[in-house]
């Protein structure tokens, strides 16, 4: 599993000629780093008398953050697994008409989980940005720059994952479903940008 690798091993694997891990896994890991930073700020605020009025918010943020962190990390390997099936489908023999049709069907089938894995990263990223925004002005002010970096990472995860969604929806057998997922992803892109700007004070 990718998440059990050392950082050096992962980066070396990512930079190799192997088709996976790729952009989808990198998007999920970027999101994990973002929410981890948000949690770090919460942990440096928890129990501080100066921020006691926000203690419930901080504790809730840590609980939500932990769930998001686990989901992001699971997304790293989920993307690799999903892409592996897509790659296997594209590698199928396609000489005869029957083989071509079997290959098309396999690609269409594999494209759905390959799109849904990064789509989950997008959903987690939006939730992470909302969580980060909720801590602005209510957490350790000495670490506000870490919330900025968290927001940049989380928005980057959403944006990066979106392009992995778009890369697969075109192969859906159910074209309507693909179009609906694309539209939802576009709306999420807009929302993530707005959230990031709100956190950065733009």
From TrEMBL:
Keyword Signal: no
Cyclodeaminase/cyclohydrolase domain sequence ranges: 6-186
GO molecular function: hydrolase activity
Keyword Cytoplasm set for record: no
Keywords: Hydrolase
Pfam families with a match to the protein in the record: FTCD_C (PF04961)
Domain of life: Bacteria
Matching SUPFAM superfamilies: Methenyltetrahydrofolate cyclohydrolase-like
Protein name: Cyclodeaminase/cyclohydrolase family protein
